[in-house]
Amino acid sequence: MRRIWLAMVAVLLVIGAGMSAHAALRVISERNAARDRAMVAADARAAALGSTVFADQETAAPAAGVTGTIDLPDLPIPAGVALDSGVVPARPFSMAGASAIDRDRARQCLTAAIYYEAASEPDAGQQAVAQVILNRARHPAFPGTVCGVVYQGSEHAGCQFSFACDGAMARVPARAAWVRAARAAGMALAGYVYAPVGLATHYHTYAVTPAWNRSLVMTDVVGAHFFHRWKGYWGTSAAFNQRYVGGEPVPGPHRDIQPLAPPTPEMIAAAGAAAVAAASAGETAAVTPSVPVAVAKSSPVPSKPAAAVVTDMLPPESQILDRWKDSGKPLK
Question: Which of 4, 5, 93, 227 has the CB geometry, 3.0–4.6 Å to 197, for a possible disulfide?
Answer without folding.
Answer: 227
